[in-house]
Write a structure and sequence with these properties.
22% of the residues are buried. A five-stranded mixed β-sheet has the order 7-9-8-10-11. A four-stranded antiparallel β-sheet has the order 1-2-3-4, with helices on both faces. The protein has a two-stranded antiparallel sheet with strand order 5-6. The protein folds into two domains: 91 residues, Nuclear Transport Factor 2, Chain: A; 141 residues, Glutaredoxin (3-Layer(aba) Sandwich), CATH 3.40.30.10. The chain has 238 residues and is of the alpha+beta class.
Length: 238
């Protein structure tokens, strides 16, 4: 038994050493040939034999065992019908709901407000307006609305006017649901700048982006029925 344990330990050590050596080969080749890859944070094997993932922050590339080729694209598992690149990036850019800076959002409460979502929206976003109309059909929910002006030159101005309004919820709903113009207002808008920084960090590139309490992140407008379905999933997973 002792001999078996020793052999297993030796095999594990050899595998670890081999993986480390492989990583060193790839890192050396890529950093010497491509100066933009000096800040590689992680190199790891993928499920595809001979293909390695190269990670820089939340950017993912692929290379061969010698670092002779670099691939920028998506790795699809056709058997499982999964986009492995998308899964990986979703994991890297995941936003913990509990870690969200809720003070930088305004809060909309309907019914008992027990169910919660966070949403990043631009006041010029047509899909956001459609989503907002559908969301009116979802009750017993708290919505943390993060203003995220990324679409048009005047998005920042409209976001500022809404954030600085005496009643943010009213002005937001008047603008998004009733196409009313929000009166000009001014105040400290550092929260909006922090929202933009947070979005860049987590690669939030479109609006609306919805984050559920279990960390599930959904880009794009979804129906009230889909919101209800996902909220039910969150509750059942607790």
């Amino acid at each position: 038994m002792k001999l078996v344990t020793t052999l297993l330990a030796g095999a594990a050590f050899a595998m670890g050493t081999s993986a480390f050596a492989q990583e060193a080969v790839i890192r050396k080749a890529l950093t010497e040939r491509i100066p933009q890859l000096q800040n590689i944070e992680e190199i790891s094997a993928t499920p595809m034999k001979g293909l390695y993932e190269v990670r820089m922050g939340t950017d993912v590339f692929y290379t061969d065992a010698a670092g002779n080729y670099l691939i920028q694209g998506e790795l699809i598992d056709t058997k499982a019908r999964r986009n492995l690149t998308e899964d990986r990036i979703n994991k890297l850019t995941a936003v913990s709901f509990d870690a969200l800076p809720l003070a930088d959002a305004f809060t909309i409460v309907r019914g008992n407000g027990k169910r919660k979502i966070a949403v990043f929206e631009d006041p010029n976003c047509g899909y956001c307006k459609r989503f907002e109309k559908d969301l009116q059909n979802v009750d017993n929910i708290t919505v943390y609305m993060f203003l995220y002006p990324i679409l048009s030159p005047d998005s920042a101005e409209k976001s500022r006017n809404i954030w600085c309004a005496k009643d943010r919820v009213k002005e937001w709903e008047d603008h998004m649901l009733r196409e009313k113009v929000t009166p000009a207002a001014s105040c400290d808008t550092a929260a909006i700048q922090r929202n933009l920084a947070l979005g860049r960090k987590h690669k939030i590139t479109g609006t609306p982006t919805i984050i559920f309490q279990d960390g599930t992140r959904v880009p794009g407008a979804i129906s009230a029925q889909e919101v209800e379905k996902r909220l039910a999933t969150v509750i059942s997973s607790k």
